[in-house]
Amino acid sequence: MKTKLTVILFLLFHNTYGQLYFPPIASPVWDTVSPASQGWCLDSLQTTFDFLEQKNTKAFIVLKDGKIAIEKYFGSFTKDSVWYWASAGKTLTAFLVGQAQEQGYLKITDTTSKYLGSGWTSLNTAQEQAITVRHQLTMTTGLDDNFGNDNCTQPACLVYKTSAGNRWAYHNAPYTLLHEVIDNATGNFNTFFNTQFRNRTGAFGLWLPGTGADSFNRIYYSTPRNMARFGLLLLNKGVWNTDTLLRDTAYLRQMTTTSQSMNMSYGYLTWLNGKASYMMPGLQLVITGSLAPNAPADMYAGLGKNDQKLYVIPSYNMVIVRMGNDAGFPAAAVSAFDNELWGKLKNIFCTPVSVNNTVIAKENWQVYPNPAKDYVVITNTNKKPYTATLYDVTGRAIKQITKRDETYSLEISEIVSGIYYLHIQSNEAKTVIKILKQ
Fold first, then answer.
1. What pTM did the predictor assign?
2. In 308-333, which positions are buried (b, 16+ CB within 10 angstroms) versus exposed (e)?
3. Sheet strands side by side (includes 318-324)
4. Which of the residues 77, 97, 150, 317 has an alpha carbon 20 to 30 A from that of 110?
5. Contact 140/167 with Cβ under 8 angstroms?
6. Three-class SS state of 337
7. Helix H segments across 300-387?
8. For the chain, how big is the Rg over CA atoms in Å?
9. Amino acid 334: pLDDT
10. Helix or strand or coil: residue 47?
11. Each residue's pLDDT tens digit, 247-293
């Protein structure tokens, strides 16, 4: 009997992950690592740079294990130039809320009125009291995002649409008011931000009011490297080097996982890839599929107007920053630019290696036991040379052997429990077998 398997393996790295490097605070020093040392495909670099330049990019950074692997600036923009984060700053605000909660200044389950006072909306008392800080974090306040200027934070602009928690809508005004929540809870937003985040990471920047229709907003400005510093902090789960800025791992987990039942691709002011569906800003439409199919499934992101991007990819130990002007895709915080950019990045990272429609030739190999605990036995009935490579679910190579033995026991006792893929290949056939390590 022949069975078909479809398995996509993203083989980004040929070396194991190292410990994270953290650049010094208040210093221009930042260690680098060469793309060549990572086994990346250098002939795709220039093509990607050309694409980025065509799409109005000003800055592009890739951190691998905390070190700068790629850093490219366009036009007159330099590493010291300052640019706005736009809505990518929402993710930073979510982190600050977590810090404020951990330090006892607020609880996200509290009604927002506790920190803004009664009458911060045009709702009746019961409707307003039902809105919590968590609803602000998850874009589920129930306030009408189509009523006039959705940036307006005045009570007259904040009108009832539905009960809190029943509708997801990308609404800037309730988000912006989180700054006032933090301000009132801690005594001073800027002092809290500077002492609890900026000074402890070296991610220096400035919150400024917007202009025109955006005048209600608070927008963060920094250099591209300082955006990368925040991504590195998230990658290391709230710890900067030896300084733990946020010990509440449950909050961090909730921030980067689905926060409500309507938009599977949204956490706490953070976009999530790899989910079964997503919703777009300004639309009440659930779209099947993940945000960026070309990107790693575990990627989460801060995404802002005119394609400001902060990608965090735990499985790759990587942070990516893109700053610039509108890349030319439909105007939204989430755009097709993410997927197209990742289509280019995969070429740099030499991915994917696809084994679609691979035929498992049972007459050639048998693998047992499965589930396995300490070892799996590979039986090679045709006695010809083969290579067996064990990958984890992120596509990272864990073990590799080249044998022609009729029977070989592959030791797996030292690896953690979970799902793995055993890729076996000879000159005549190949197969991928899913292994459950107990």
1. 0.77
2. bbbbbbbbbbbbbbbbbeebeeeebb
3. 67-73, 57-64, 318-324, 308-313, 300-304, 271-272
4. 150
5. yes
6. helix
7. 336-348
8. 24
9. 66
10. helix
11. 999 999 999 999 999 999 999 999 999 999 999 998 899 998 899 99
